[in-house]
Amino acid sequence: MKNFTSVGDIGDLKVALEKAKYVKENPFADQELGKNKALMLIFFNSSLRTRLSTQKAGMNLGMNVMVLDINQGAWKLETERGVIMDGDKPEHILEAIPVMGSYCDVIGVRSFAQFENKVYDYNEVILNQFIQYSGKPVFSMEAATRHPLQSFADLITIEEYKKKTRPKVVLTWAPHPRALPQAVPNSFAEWMNAAGYEFVITHPEGYELDEQFVGNAVVEYDKEKAYKDADFIYAKNWAAYQDPNYGKILSTDRSWTVDSAKMALTNDAYFMHCLPVRRNMIVTDEVIESKQSLVIPEAANRVVSAQTVLKEILLEMRKK
Ligand code: CP
Fold first, then answer.
1. Pairing with 131, which of 40, 84, 141, 310 sits 20 to 30 Å away (CA)?
2. From the CA of 250, how far away is ligand 1's center (Å)?
3. What average pLDDT score do residues 254-272 get?
4. Which tens digits make up the pLDDT trace of 159-214?
5. Fold: same for 7-146+302-318 and 148-298
6. Alpha-carbon distance 139 to 141, whole Å?
């Protein structure tokens, strides 16, 4: 694996899950692989889980880890070519990227959708600039359209807890006071489709995701119907994708909050969310604190997904 930006980079999912299981059971078995290798984690946006779990993954592999918050302590970066740089951004990303690449062996990047220009967001301009100009393997720590390390951890968690070969997994939109990107639901849909589960997406009308991610999923606007017999309920808010409402909040309807009444319609489903989560907007206290809530083991598996991906990147580098 050279770069990791989507499910397409992980190869056969069954093999990837076997590798993840090995990493989870033997976290320090590959300390030599990362010895004298520098891992640089670059954040354009805030993070708790991704920052800590990816650092831990790198440390488990014997790597030296550097973290840079672009908006706290680094020069503000201009990202557009052709701009006359007479504003508040003293450095251009096209110099900053190769400089950062010269200081490390592997780069992780977090760069959310900005909701100013859908084409710019969905072309993954910043992530692709790192791939093009850093000269180093690059992996996504959540980009504008996907969050593959989260989705891999979600898949690992579902595999650990599922009670049948092909569980019914439901991705439900839930209300939130701020406009959030589609990266987590897009990516989750992509990985669930690849896993071949029975997969249903439910949301209010107007929140349809990009078809390339929806794939073969059933889209069900009747949430109660969607919840029926579900084995996993995966909640997430996202802002509208479709034009002319791209990036807008169309609803804060709290009848979509995951609560015990809707969970009672399921096949004693597990509750999942990538975190951070706004309680009693996305999910009630009762559901997130219930024995069916997987949010903590799901977050813990972020170390496993990151370490599995980093290990593959290091193995690829060793071949050269
Ligand atoms: N789930 C997730 O990516 O969490 P952070 O935003 O805290 O990294």
1. 84
2. 24
3. 98
4. 999 999 999 999 999 999 999 999 999 999 999 999 999 999 999 999 999 999 99
5. yes
6. 7
Higher pLDDT pick, 320 / 59: 59
Give the CATH fold of the 148-298 domain.
Rossmann fold (3.40.50)
How many A from CA of 302 to the centre of ligand 1?
A: 9
User: How many beta carbons lie within 10 A of that of residue 69, not counting itself?
Assistant: 16
7-146+302-318 to CATH, choices 3.40.50.620, 3.40.50.300, 3.40.50.1370, 3.30.1330.10:
3.40.50.1370
Q: How far is CA 199 from the centre of its chain?
A: 18
Nearest CA to ligand 1 atom 4: 49
For the chain, the domains span 7-146+302-318, 148-298
